[in-house]
Design brief:
Strand 14 (about 385-395) and strand 15 (about 400-405) form a beta hairpin. The chain has helices at about 15-20, 40, 50-55, 70-75, 100-110, 125-130, 140-145, 150-155, 165-195, 200-210, 215-225, 235-250, 255-270, 280-290, 315-320, 410-425, and strands at about 5, 25-30, 45, 60-65, 90-95, 115-120, 120, 135-140, 155-160, 325-335, 345-355, 360-365, 370-375, 385-395, 400-405. The strands form three sheets. It has a six-stranded parallel β-sheet, with helices on both faces. With about 425 residues, it is α/β, with parallel strands linked by helices. It has three domains: about 5-165, Rossmann fold (3-Layer(aba) Sandwich), CATH 3.40.50.720; about 170-290, Orthogonal Bundle (N-(1-d-carboxylethyl)-l-norvaline Dehydrogenase, domain 2); about 320-425, Beta Barrel (Thrombin, subunit H). This is Tartronate semialdehyde reductase. GO terms for molecular function: cyclic-di-GMP binding; NAD binding; NADP binding.
Length: about 425
């Protein structure tokens, strides 16, 4: 049987290499953190000191690495794969990387009379352990046919997608759906939780209804159990969505759902959830709605909220007492031109409240429903102008209180806005 070099022994690479060992292949392993290779060495694998050594002594070299940068470094770095390439070697990259990176390596290896296939996988660690992965392959069809027994040793389905880069493109399109589906599940469960529905009962609705999905199967119960152990990390999900966004930009394809999903996962990363499973992004929703998604049962002692300081937080005081924040704003008004209408005027207002979906602003100037306003915060806030639409008007002793739904606010702006408001509430810093 062929000797297989395997580089990258993380969540997916290690069980894939173990599967090859169990099928009787001779396997040479390399990992930047050498300790991760020891279990495989005990199972019979040989340990390479460098990527070049693994390439030099293998008939087929498989790579499973985290991103473009790491992959290219393993190829071109000191003692990298390119230093061990020889004619007749086949390299199979199972990483999720950009199609451009795959095509670059394909061209480079062809100049050395070596073959390259981009063959990212789907199925997760369990499928890697069971040898039931799905491979989506780009490159030469004849090379794929030559290596088909190797693919079949690790997977239950091998699909040829087209020329070099096609496998990587398919994986990015696939993971776009994964990210959007996961957020659809989390958002639906958040709606149910905010409306005081039992999460366990609602998940049964999802599983039995048209909303049933692989994400519901894999992560629905884990969300309820608050199990964020890493199956596929949030930071890797975000990496794939960003790569998909670059691809859609190249294709000049609008992808509004992709961009929205990317924004939400960016929020999760900014909250330090990157190394958790991607379902940990539910904690962003829980923070926004001040409710946890759980079944209707008593909380375990370790999950109960701390009550060391019984005094209400500034946020709670604001919510309970509706305290006027007294943050001065400047509003630019825009409305469709018609008889009696106006556009481009500027008025003063005061921020009254920050809600989950927008702002409440007090002004003595009469506005109309569905009018768009551009909200300018004090210079100290270092916030860009924010667009809002008037969706509610309530008489107020200071004139009118306007509910403004924010439109298209980028995730980092929302975070910065919340931090600015929180700082004002906690410190009581005088406003201008």
């Amino acid at each position: 049987m062929k000797t297989i070099g395997f580089i990258g022994l993380g969540t997916m690479g290690k069980p894939m290499a173990a599967t090859l060992l169990s099928k009787g292949y001779s396997v040479i392993v390399y990992n930047r953190t050498a300790e991760k290779a020891q279990d495989l060495v005990r199972q019979g694998a040989d340990l390479a000191e460098t990527p070049a050594e693994a390439a030099r002594n293998a008939d087929v070299l498989i790579t499973m690495l985290s991103n473009d940068e790491v992959l290219l470094d393993v190829f071109y770095g000191e003692h990298g794969i390119m230093h061990g390439v020889r004619p007749g070697l086949t390299v199979i990259d199972c990483s999720t990387v950009s199609p451009d990176a795959s095509r670059k390596l394909h061209r480079e290896l062809a100049q050395h009379y070596a073959d390259f296939l981009d063959a990212p996988v789907s199925g997760g660690p369990v499928a890697a352990e069971n040898g039931t992965l799905l491979f989506m392959v780009g490159g030469s069809h004849s090379v794929l046919n030559e290596q088909l027994p190797l693919f079949e040793a690790m997977g239950s389905k091998v699909l040829y997608m087209g020329p070099s880069g096609a496998g990587s493109t398919a994986k990015l399109a696939h993971n776009t759906i994964v990210g959007i589906n996961a957020l659809g599940l989390i958002e639906g469960m958040s709606i149910a939780a905010k409306a005081n529905l039992d999460a366990q009962q609602f998940l049964q609705v999802v599983m039995a209804g048209a909303a049933h999905s692989k994400q519901a199967e894999l992560r629905g119960q884990k969300i309820i159990d608050r199990d964020f152990a890493n199956m596929f990390s949030l930071q890797l999900m975000l990496k794939d969505l960003l790569l998909a966004g670059s691809l859609t930009d190249t294709l000049k394809l609008p992808a509004p759902l992709l961009k929205s999903a990317t924004g939400v996962f960016q929020m999760g990363l900014s909250r330090g959830l990157g190394e958790n499973d991607l379902n940990a992004v539910v904690q962003c929703y829980e923070e926004w709605m001040h409710t946890k998604i759980t079944a209707s049962q008593p909380l375990a002692e370790e999950d109960k909220p701390e009550t060391v300081n019984p005094s209400p937080s500034a946020r709670e005081r604001r919510r309970n007492q509706r305290v006027l924040m007294n943050i001065k704003l400047l509003l630019s008004l825009y409305e469709w031109e018609q008889e009696g209408a106006f556009s481009g005027q500027h008025i003063e207002g005061t921020l009254f409240d920050l809600s989950e979906g927008g702002l409440q602003i007090v002004s003595n100037y009469p506005l109309t429903l569905d009018m768009f306003v551009v909200i300018h915060f004090p210079q100290e806030a270092e916030l860009p102008p924010i667009i809002g639409r008037i969706i509610r008007i309530t008489p107020d002793k200071n004139g009118f209180r306007y509910g403004c739904m924010l439109s298209g606010i980028p995730p980092y702006v929302r975070i910065k806005l919340e931090e600015y408001i929180r700082h004002k509430l906690e410190t009581g810093t005088p406003t201008t």
